[in-house]
Amino acid sequence: MSASATHRTIDAIWRIESAKLIAGLARMLRDIGLAEDLAQDALVIALERWPDTGIPDNPGAWLMTTAKRRAIDLLRRNKLRDRKYEEVGREIHAYAEDDIVGALDGEIGDDLLRLIFTTCHPVLSQEARVALTLRLLAGLTTDEIARAFLVAESTIAQRIVRAKRTLNTAQVPFEMPVAHELKERLSTVLEVIYLLFNEGYAATSGGSWVRPLLCQEALRLGRMLAEIAPSEPEVHGLVALMEIQSSRFKTRVNAKGEPILLMDQNRALWDRLLIRRGLAALERARSLGRPLGPYALQAAIAACHAQARTAEETDWARIAALYEALARAMPSPIVELNRAVAISMAFGPLFGLQLVEELTSEPMLKDYHLLPSVRGDFLFKLGRFDEARSEFARAASLTRNERERDLLLKRVAECPISE
Fold first, then answer.
1. 72 in the same domain as 33
2. Which of 259, 282, 307 is the last residue of a domain?
3. Staple 415 to which of 74, 148, 264, 385, CB 3.0 to 4.6 Å?
């Protein structure tokens, strides 16, 4: 394997393993910032050694063992309390390379959930909680997080640095909160899991359209959360949304990894088991007797697609109505953009275009690639090809995802040239 191919493989392994690594180290050290530093140290060592020695059979175990040994060395150098040093020393034996898989499987799920609840502690602002958790749990770059929130990268970087410092100063324990504290942090935890799933469902950047392992991790965490908080309708709403969206994975890309849009997907290949699980979770949310919140409303929209046997049978009028309800529950220009798409599908592209024109002056959407992409699609359907071509080209210049850029450039080429 070439050095560049090895580095790409290491990058992929890091994206998969980093959250588990940080969670395990944070449980041991009770210091999230230090845990992230040691995890990064292990990555640097891997980048130095693996191109020569080859990638280990169990790279996650190798990284965990290396990071924990670094933790031992650090504690020794810093002459921390003998009791803590002995405690960490005992723990390292449980993570020997031969049996680390069992150790990870036994507690890693709880560690990840503890990590989410720790980084979503009320001592942090809402924005800081989400940014820090996405950085540690999803391994997203500051740029990817900034694009998800449509803010400057420097803003996100500052939030993350301040958040780690605040948690350390406040000595926030690395543990699951008790019942009354759990509810205080629940909305942020749900938001983080949702954003984690979205990054896997449509990657912000890179050469892949989807990152299924992120979605699987988010769905697993959501299911665990539903067991912990069974009376919270939005927990079931989020699980329902993720179950239904996950049912489409086999049809979201072709054999070449190129995106397949929703209306072009082969619905016979959608995973019916996941759809049934999603519909059951949505029913649980409804059965709790409270108005549907943003996640449950999005799950209801996804259910409309899942229950339509063909794209032509989709109940777009109902979807448009659900987006209107979602806009009231969670006002957002992105929700309005999605509502414009639904109205276009239900009543024609001219109506959708009128709504999109109102969003062109929205500051949050200034560099959001889907705004010109959607506007270009409406213009194309209306036969205004020169304008559509310009919009698709602008969208292609804004996206950071290579696959999405290729798709948008194809849309540029599809626009007939006026004579």
1. yes
2. 307
3. 385
